[in-house]
Design a protein that fits this description.
- Helices cover 81% and strands 0% of the residues.
- The chain is mainly α and 260 residues long.
- The protein has one domain (3-239).
- The longest helix has 47 residues, at 3-49.
- The radius of gyration is 24 Å and the shape is globular.
């Protein structure tokens, strides 16, 4: 068998493996959606029982609003449960190319995917969302507008804040994982800093209320997350270099004649 044929077979095997793992992810996501339907109503009741939702009288402007509510909360539940599984499938896909200690190290990150996602949601819901609603309420009051919201409008506004922030809280873990499998390193992250800052500022301004204080309170934590990620990447990278050096010294000691 020629070398080109072997390479083609290798590519086909990798594509087949990737497709199989994507099918696993889709299956878990669908299962999470089904389970999320049972949690949708309790979560919805909790959200509308807390300020500022408890001060509004929500209206339904479409027969599909109730279905949309269930879908929104079910998707949030499904995503929070599926993200660790996605990380595991990514780990399993690249696992054959990793060394033994790299496999063990990266596997430990997976449970924290769920923890950071929940932390991001809590930060967005309990800190960012109240600021956003307070800002919009002040503007509406100044303009003499009566606040009469559709439930879909309210939840869409809320989810547009919560979901991006929850995903952004995964940044340190993603960077640690990519550093551990040698796709990223702190040197590359420092070179990307200005572009990363620009992207994070753009995201922070997009999801926060349009005033300087809110933009500042959202953007600064995102930048700190990035710098914390670079710090974690540096720690992992130094350990990698130390292990590589130790392995090279051990190899040279065992094969003295291979060194010219």
């Amino acid at each position: 068998m020629s070398q080109d044929t072997e390479q083609q077979l290798s590519v086909i095997e990798h594509i087949t493996e990737l497709r199989r793992r994507i099918m696993y992810i889709v299956a878990v996501l669908v299962a999470g959606l089904i389970g999320g339907f049972f949690l949708a109503e309790p979560l919805f009741q909790y959200v509308i029982s807390r300020p500022p939702a408890d001060t509004y009288t929500f209206k339904s402007f479409s027969p599909w609003d109730g279905v949309g509510i269930y879908m929104k909360f079910a998707f949030l539940v499904a995503l929070s449960l599926t993200l660790p599984f996605i990380m595991y499938q990514l780990w399993a896909f690249v696992c054959p190319g990793l060394r033994e200690h790299e496999r063990k190290a990266t596997l430990k990150y997976i449970p924290f995917v769920f923890v950071l996602f929940i932390a991001g949601m809590c930060f967005a819901y309990y800190i960012v969302a109240p600021m956003a609603f307070q800002f919009t309420a002040n503007v509406n009051q100044q303009l003499g507008l009566q606040e009469l919201y559709g439930i879909t409008h309210y939840l869409t506004f809320l989810f547009n804040l919560v979901l991006p922030m929850a995903l952004l809280f995964e940044l340190p873990l993603v960077i640690m994982f990519l550093t551990a499998i040698r796709i990223l390193n702190p040197l590359r992250l420092r070179k990307m800093r200005r572009f990363a800052y620009f992207g994070l500022v753009l995201i922070g301004v997009s999801i926060s209320p349009p005033d300087f204080i809110s933009d500042f309170l959202i953007t600064i934590p995102l930048i700190l997350l990035y710098e914390f990620s670079v710090l974690l990447s540096s720690f992992i990278y130094r350990n990698q270099l130390a292990r590589d050096k130790a392995w090279e010294e051990e190899f040279e000691a065992g094969h003295p004649h291979s060194v010219s």
